[in-house]
Design goal:
The protein has about 375 residues and is of the alpha+beta class. The chain has 10 helices and 14 strands. A hairpin with a 2-residue loop joins strand 9 and strand 10. Helix 1 packs antiparallel against helix 6 and helix 8 runs antiparallel to helix 9.
């Protein structure tokens, strides 16, 4: 049981971490903006406001190919009391608060953006149609939102107290983006009283331009007003955090080896004590020390590998159930082969280390003394 618990933690952490890394990698997909521009000192994405005129001004910066202003409103309250109140409803079935169904990543997010600029947000393909820039009652929703709220193209969803028709469903592979919705920028500005303002500016650079150099040029041109973050640096920071989890995973693996090894030693030593006469008989009929050694080591390894199977099965069932209930569609568990190889290697090492001393002790038993043992 002790070994199985250690293996369970190793596999579970590996599956979740792998899923997060896969989603992080998807943020760098081709076509999306390489630079995000926000108000200096605004902190979290979407909390600051930038004058919409800067969207056009940034086109004058060398290396900038295309820009798009985005406005983001998020409901983090299940009571519907926040300024950016977001709720969903199916036609004729009443209203359902979506903020409680989007996991723990800041609630249901609504982003305002011109439809012809959606590629800068990583939205390439839409099942259905894009919303119209002139329409004030159309919206597209992410795959995760569609699943969680059971919404399809043609259904209606209530946002900020107004009914919107869902014209399309998109999927970017980014668990945060896919858990939200997009509408026209002007519509969201009117709904949230943010006329002529945006939360951030997505910047697509020229093919031969350097993202870091362009970022520095933007900050130099608008000091104390605009701050930039490149997609590569953001992904790097996220991967650094995930690598920390990986390190913790290896530390747990080491701990599992130590604790599991002690448990196996205890179990196998007791087994040797209880089978002293049996081992004496085997040696008396001609079993060599090497064969006795192999028998005890084999039992030890089999014990730990069975524990590895149990721990792995429990981890897979637990992670899949947890993510489907609390993070449905936002994080997909990773089933990478190296995760399971690591678990079984740890179990095998525990079996060898834990069985060495008991096996040596059994192999060195004197047949005469063993047969006299009570």
């Amino acid at each position: 049981m002790g070994i199985a618990i250690g293996i369970m933690v190793i596999v579970a952490l590996g599956m979740v971490t792998g899923g997060l890394k896969a989603s992080t990698t998807s943020t760098l997909k081709a076509g999306a903006a390489e630079i995000s521009v926000v108000q200096t000192g605004s902190g979290n994405y979407g909390s600051g406001r930038i004058d919409e005129s800067r969207v056009t001004d940034l086109l004058n910066i060398s290396g900038v190919k295309e820009t798009a202003g985005t406005l983001r409103a998020t409901n983090t309250s299940t009571s519907g009391s926040s300024t950016a109140d977001v709720s969903g409803s199916s036609t004729g079935t009443g209203t359902t608060d979506t903020s409680s169904g989007q996991g723990s990543f800041g609630g249901f997010s609504v982003t305002g953006m011109d439809p012809d600029k959606l590629s800068l947000a990583g939205i390439e393909d839409v099942d259905g149609a894009l919303y119209s820039n002139e329409s004030t009652n159309e919206v597209i929703i992410g795959k995760t939102t569609s699943t969680n709220l059971d919404k399809n193209v043609g259904d209606t969803i209530n946002l900020f107290g107004k009914d919107f028709t869902i014209t399309g469903i998109y999927e970017t592979g980014n668990f945060m983006t896919d858990a939200g919705a997009f509408m026209s920028l002007s519509t969201l500005q009117n709904l949230t009283n943010n006329d002529n303002q945006v939360s951030s500016i997505a910047v697509k650079i020229d093919e031969n331009a350097n993202a870091t150099e362009v970022s520095e040029a933007i900050e130099t041109a608008y000091p104390n007003e605009l701050s930039t973050t490149t997609a590569a640096s953001m992904a790097s920071r996220m991967n650094t955090a995930l690598n920390t989890i990986d390190t913790a995973n290896w530390a747990i693996s080491l701990l599992a080896i130590i604790i599991g090894g002690v448990g196996v030693v205890n179990t196998m030593v007791m087994s040797v004590f209880e089978r002293t006469r049996e081992i004496g008989v085997l040696k008396a009929v001609g079993w060599k020390e090497k064969r006795i050694l192999g028998m005890i080591l084999g039992e030890s390894v089999v014990l730990t590998l069975i524990a590895a199977v149990v721990g792995t099965v429990v981890a897979v069932i637990g992670v899949v159930a947890l993510l489907s209930v609390y993070f449905s569609g936002t994080i997909e568990p990773s089933f990478a082969l190296d995760i399971f190889i690591r678990a079984f290697v740890v179990a095998f090492v525990v079996g060898i280390i834990g069985g060495l001393y008991p096996a040596y002790r059994a192999a060195r038993l004197s047949p005469t003394e063993a047969l006299r043992y009570e």
